[in-house]
Amino acid sequence: MPEIQTVIHEVTTSSVAEFVEFSLVEYTSGGPTDTSVVEWRHLTNSSGPSIAVMLKTGPQIIGRIWVQFNHWSVLGQELRTASPIDFLIRPDARRIQNFLQLFKSGIRVSCDNADLVLHTSNPLTNDLYQKLLKISPVTELDGAILPLRPFSLFPTLKKFGLSPLMSMGDIVYSTSLRILCKVVSSSNVRFVDTPTLIEQTDLISKLHLSEICGRRSPLDRSWRFNGTGEFKYFVQWIANKNGILGYVVWSDRLINEVEGRFIVDVVLPGQHSWWTILNIWLKIASTALKEQSHAIFFFYNKTNPRLNKIASFPLFKVSRKRLPQRIPIFIRIPDSKKWKIQSDIDWSSGYFVLSDFDMF
Question: Is this structure's pTM higher than 0.70?
Fold first, then answer.
C-alpha cells in the first residue's frame, strides 16, 4: 500500500476544484460541494487565501483540513488568526492515526502562519479533540430565542390534531407582539441607511478597543456578508437621536421545518439601557413577523458581559443540551508568538458570535 503523505500548499483555483470533488465522498449538496462558496471561503477571503493540508496516497486524496485566515482585535491589538476548518477524511480511511496526522499537520500550519489559532468543532471532531487529544475549549456559545409564532415551533404536535388550535394560538400571540412592537416603536430607536465611513470607523474602533473580537473593517464585513451561495445576509444599522448605535446582521433560514431569523452578528459598543436593547429586539421582531418567521435565534458567548446583556429580555435563554449542535471554542497561542500577546488575557470572555465561524 502506498505511504500516506502530507501535502501542503496555498489554495488556488485548481485546488478549489479538487476540494469540491473530494467533498462528494461525504456530501451531496451544500457549501462544500459549491465551487463559488469554496472560492469565497478559501480563495477570495479578505485576509488572503487559505492553506490546504491534504493526506494523499499517491495522487489520491484520503483526507483534508484547510487553514483559513482572518484578523482579530485583542483589546485593540490586531492579530492574524488561523482556523483549521473543513475537516474531512474518506470513510474507508477513518482511522485514529490518519486523524492525528491530519489534525497535527493542520495545527502546525496554523501556528506557523498566524499569531493565534481559533476554531470550533462538529460533533465528531469535538469528541476527538476533547477525549482523545485532551484539548479543552475556552468557552462555548449559548443560545437565546425570541418566539414569534411559538406553536409553529412544534410541528410534531400536528399529528395529535392540534393544528387549528396551534394556528389560533400563533395568531393571538403574534398579533399581541405586533401591537407591542408598534407601541414601543414610538421610541426613537430605528434602522437607518448605511452611515458614513467615518461614523462606521468610529463605531467599530470602540468595539475593537474594548473586546477580543473578529476584525470588522468595511472590507471584512463586505467579504463576510456579501459572499456567495444560497444563503443571504441582511445588515441593518441602528440609530437613535444621538447618532449611530451599532448594527445587526441576520440570515433567514428554514431548518427542521422552522422558519428562523438567525442573528449572525450584532455590534453595540458602549453602555445601553435595557429599554434600548428591548427596542432593538422588538424592531428586529417587527420585520421578522412580516416575513412569517417562527422565531429569532441568537447564539453568543454569555461569558462576555456585553453579549450577555444584549441577550437579555425579551429573549429567553436556551439550555445547551437543547441546542441542535454544541459550539465549543478552542484557542491556542503558538509558542513563537507568546511574547507578542498579554499573558493575563481572559480568552473565555471573548466577543464570540456566529459570524466568527464558518458554520453560518
Answer: yes
